[in-house]
Amino acid sequence: AMVHSSPAKAEIEGDCSKAVGTFLTKNDLDNNARAGTSRSLLVLTNGGHALRFDSDQRAAAMDSRSFGDSAGTWRCDGVDNDETVRLTVSTLDFTYPDEEGYPGQIARIDVTGTYTPTTETMVLDGKLAFLPMDSDAQEADALSKASSSISVKFTGQRIDLPKTP
């Protein structure tokens, strides 16, 4: 297995780059037995950027507040002998204040998992937490400072282009 540098230091190259692309994901969330599901587009670039666009931004099944698009970073944690790419993704977005008096917050998602090139399937598990606007949500240990977190699981497939005419 090969470990590559942080995306801030170098582009994603070699076998790790097989995980670069856009994926349609199903997102399962569990907040102390309160379950929710949404769909997302998850984009992983060869520059180490991660972008996420969620279908539940207005309904917010796991929280009453609406939220925005997510952006962050990803890294390759290695490639197994069967070419499975192990990866970590961290994204941030913002919740908006609502009529019930909830303040805006920073939402952070940290997930780890795999991308299997032969099936073009991604499976990521991790946590979602809400942090105060004045927190250091960009720090690696930000989720450990959150008062609570929600379990998340993303399963996705790479978006295919239409066949060439």
Mind sketching the topology for me?
Elements: E1 21-31, E2 34-44, E3 49-54, E4 70-79, E5 85-94, E6 105-116, E7 121-132, E8 150-158
Antiparallel strand pairs: 1-2, 1-8, 2-3, 3-4, 4-5, 5-6, 6-7, 7-8
Model description:
Strand 4 and strand 5 form a beta hairpin. The protein has strands spanning 21-31, 34-44, 49-54, 70-79, 85-94, 105-116, 121-132, 150-158. Helices cover 0% and strands 49% of the residues. Mean pLDDT is 86; it is low at 1-8. It is mainly β and 165 residues long.
Quick structural gist:
This protein has 165 residues and is mainly β. The protein is built from no helices and 8 strands.
Radius of gyration: 16 Å
The best one-word shape is globular
Strand order of the largest sheet: 1-2-3-4-5-6-7-8
Count of individual beta strands: 8
Low-confidence stretches: 1-8
Terminus-to-terminus distance: 39 Å
**Percent range of helical residues:** under 10%
